[in-house]
Amino acid sequence: MPGEAADGGLGDALDVATEDFADGDVSKKVDVQKALKGVNCVFHLASYGMSGKEMLQAGRVDAVNLNGTCNILDVCHEYGIKRLVYVSTYNVVFGGKEIINGNESLPYFPIDEHVDPYGRSKSIAEQLVLKSNGRAAKKKDGTRLYTCAIRPAAIYGPGEERHLPRIISLAKMGLCTFKIGKANVKTDWVYIDNLVLAFLLASMGLLDDIPGTEGKPVAAGQSYFISDDDLILLPHVIPISKPLVASSTFILPAEVYKVGVTHYFSFLKAKQELGYIPIVSPREGMSRTILYWKDKRSKDLEGPTIFTWILVVGGMVANFCVAFLPCYGPLAWLKSISLFIFRSVSTVRLVFILAVAAHVGEAVYAWSLSKRVDPANSGGWFWQTFCLGIFSLRFLLKRARRNSS
């Protein structure tokens, strides 16, 4: 949300100005009618299926991105709303082929060649929005709907939950092991405050009652690329998952198809027609983002990599099976190894009981300690330490030392 952009930033100013909030589903026309009643400018940000497991839900993607957009256009027509700023995507022209300093003259990427429903639906929706520009209101009072589309680069900033959080969570789990594309792949991003500024300028570019201007608004029927005006090297150490792995932390094949290719665009048109110039530099934007994530990390439950989970939990399960279950299949050789080390089944059972007792004791201590240093996550610390023992407790002890210093 814009209001989460940055402390003291443009997003906070907008957050203060926000008075009403309507909870609804953009794919349901009745909800859209309730939300847009009495407004004169609409910012259509709602979309679904950009990344993660949501990309696999084609029906929901179309319901939100296509049906939702049609509902908004219909309600704007019914209510006589004058301005609609549609938030689009680079994917309407980009489909996995290199684009260097592209501009708005590029043709739409062929609809039937999109590899994911998100890019296809957003392309169709943008074209619907732009073709609705100049449409007369239903009540025939001379009011017309003016529309434009903002095509932002990858969005980052405090509160962003789609890009950086996935990379951070993968790194914490120790899963950043695959390379995608070449090391010199470049793209551009946009800081949230800069994007909000573009929204506001676009909405003003749709005004048709500015003194001294004639004809249709400058932004009417137009599309604009928006970025920070700074190229970055794409993170190319990102894990890949199979399509069947429905986890929001992994990157899916459709994303791999695009992420390893250089693609960036010029915002010259937005600068000339809307007066858009980034107000937050990439360095400042990334600094704010890093500070946000450092603060967020200090409040979240910390833990070891997924390999530690597999080793510890797998070891405990294997120990239990050897100690208490009959020897069938793989358990036979596993039991042989255990007996070679511990010499007897009774010793294996004793080791398991002592390990469980240690985990329980460490979990209780973790719960008690977290009540003082991290009360919001005390339950999480208990169960994580119960499963992992000292491998979890050491993270809590580090946090306790940081808090006391």
UniProtKB/TrEMBL annotation:
<protein>
    <submittedName>
        <fullName>3beta-hydroxysteroid-dehydrogenase/decarboxylase isoform 1</fullName>
    </submittedName>
</protein>
<dbReference type="InterPro" id="IPR036291">
    <property type="entry name" value="NAD(P)-bd_dom_sf"/>
</dbReference>
<dbReference type="InterPro" id="IPR028110">
    <property type="entry name" value="TMEM254"/>
</dbReference>
<feature type="domain" description="3-beta hydroxysteroid dehydrogenase/isomerase">
    <location>
        <begin position="14"/>
        <end position="229"/>
    </location>
</feature>
<feature type="transmembrane region" description="Helical">
    <location>
        <begin position="340"/>
        <end position="360"/>
    </location>
</feature>
<dbReference type="InterPro" id="IPR002225">
    <property type="entry name" value="3Beta_OHSteriod_DH/Estase"/>
</dbReference>
<keyword id="KW-0560">Oxidoreductase</keyword>
<keyword id="KW-0812">Transmembrane</keyword>
<comment type="similarity">
    <text>Belongs to the 3-beta-HSD family.</text>
</comment>
<dbReference type="InterPro" id="IPR050177">
    <property type="entry name" value="Lipid_A_modif_metabolic_enz"/>
</dbReference>
<dbReference type="Pfam" id="PF14934">
    <property type="entry name" value="TMEM254"/>
</dbReference>
<feature type="transmembrane region" description="Helical">
    <location>
        <begin position="380"/>
        <end position="397"/>
    </location>
</feature>
<keyword id="KW-0472">Membrane</keyword>
<keyword id="KW-1133">Transmembrane helix</keyword>
<feature type="transmembrane region" description="Helical">
    <location>
        <begin position="306"/>
        <end position="328"/>
    </location>
</feature>
<dbReference type="GO" id="GO:0006694">
    <property type="term" value="P:steroid biosynthetic process"/>
</dbReference>
<dbReference type="Pfam" id="PF01073">
    <property type="entry name" value="3Beta_HSD"/>
</dbReference>
<dbReference type="GO" id="GO:0016616">
    <property type="term" value="F:oxidoreductase activity, acting on the CH-OH group of donors, NAD or NADP as acceptor"/>
</dbReference>
